[in-house]
Amino acid sequence: MRTLGIETSCDETGIALWDESEGLLAHRLHSQTAIHAAYGGVVPELASRDHIRRTAPLIEQVLADAGCGYADLDGIAATAGPGLLGALLVGLSTGKALAFARDLPFLGVHHLEAHLLAPALEEAPPAFPFVALLVSGGHTLLAEVTGVGHYRLLGQSLDDAAGEAFDKTAKLLGLGYPGGPAVAHAAAGGDPTAFDLPRPMVDKPNLDFSFSGLKTAVLNQSKTGGPAGHSDRFVADLCASFQEAVAETLWRKSARALKETGLERLVVAGGVGANARLREHFAAGAEALGAGLHFPRPAFCTDNGAMVAHAGSLRLAAGERDGWNRSAVARWPLEELRPPKK
Ligand code: KG4
Ligand code: ZN
């Protein structure tokens, strides 16, 4: 089964071709960073318009990269939610139109399911069951994953997502957009112990998160920098301290989730999983616990078409299909998903 995957839920147009037996045949990504940078965040209407310009040409490029034509496709999968409605509709409508024209099965994919199954794009994919930590710009949650569509929510952020905290920290320090990579870059060479920032909710006996207080703590510290602005050292130390606080908080809750579920494997997915310091911190923690740790490569932590082609392929191959009336949904809780249905 050869599935074309289309991702347009936010500000990246991602297209990929996944073959059930051969794996990933080709993938391409167009990032809209340059369009949204001037506004300090994603402008939904501009995102939709750029997806319209990019989606069809990118599909042709991916097919050419793989040496395939439309006749070689067995199914089409496009992200149906959660995400920006207008942006989602571009990929979804393109996918449905293509499937209709070629008489192919079509499926709308859950963006977070695609993220948490993304470690299977790599060699030595994790076996079920595992604990998944999903850390993106819109979501931060821990789930027990016992199979495709078997997701039990263990905890989630009560306010900001971890990626949102990176983005807001970058904004208040004037580091630009997107914030995660900007903070990580600024943190290089900084002292992670320079500022005493909170590890929110780590002492609470649950698996929920809260990142808005951490953002406020960074704001308060940034006010101590003086009217002449901040030195490079100050910014590096504050970013390194912030990054450490996020990584440690996420790790402590993930370790607790492993302990409470008795599971031995942890999967980390979503854009914040691309953070190099977080990956180091988790690697050391997992080794000490003797737990298995799986990340997608950094480019497949952030939004991409490969994860959508892969997740869509799993469900299409099991016989699941959507009708032509399938629409996009801005809000779609992960727990509402069920195993593939015929
Ligand atoms: O998964 P993703 O690409 O999109 C969503 O589904 O939200 O995640 C985007 C988030 C943004 O908040 C971005 O700042 C963050 O992931 N991010 C990072 C890094 N790369 C992306 N955060 C920390 N370090 C990074 N290297
Ligand atoms: Zn995402």
Summarize the structure.
The chain is of the alpha/beta class. 42% of the residues lie in helices and 19% in strands. It binds 5'-O-[(R)-(carboxyoxy)(hydroxy)phosphoryl]adenosine and zinc ion.
Explain what this protein looks like in three dimensions:
The chain has 342 residues and is an alpha/beta fold. It folds into two domains: 2-117 and 303-336, 2-Layer Sandwich (Nucleotidyltransferase, domain 5), CATH 3.30.420; 126-295, ATPase, nucleotide binding domain (Nucleotidyltransferase, domain 5), CATH 3.30.420. The protein has eleven helices and ten strands. The protein has helices at residues 33-36, 44-66, 85-102, 111-116, 162-172, 179-187, 212-222, 232-261, 276-289, 298-301, 305-317, and strands spanning 2-7, 12-19, 23-31, 75-81, 106-110, 130-135, 140-147, 150-156, 265-269, 292-294. The strands form two sheets. Strands 3-2-1-4-5 form a five-stranded mixed sheet, with helices on both faces. Helix 3 (85-102) links the parallel strand 4 and strand 5. Helix 8 runs parallel beside helix 9. Bound molecules: 5'-O-[(R)-(carboxyoxy)(hydroxy)phosphoryl]adenosine (KG4) and zinc ion (ZN). The site of zinc ion has 5 residues, from helix 4.
